[in-house]
């Protein structure tokens, strides 16, 4: 896997992926940023949320659960001094579908957290990561 990051002036950077996608990242105004993109550390959270959400949806579909939506809400705390690494991350899944079995959703979340999600497992080496979920019955 490869990526390329190019400085775009001030505190802005353009990240390009090997799969030909691009994203603008920017620093906060107090560091010369123009607030035209997410901060790099926010990108880490987005990547983690995307990775674990992909797993949960894939596992539930393989389990023949009738899932129609999955939202991962993430809250994180960072160290107060440099390096300001993540120290705590909480991922709350909101899973919507018909007749979803709580034990299947719990299993999917656990498998992602402990076996499949490379991003959260990697971040778990330095941060305490917790998970929970709620199920919304689709009408």
Automatic annotation (TrEMBL):
PANTHER family: PROTEIN YHFA. NCBIfam families: PRK10738.1. This is Peroxiredoxin.
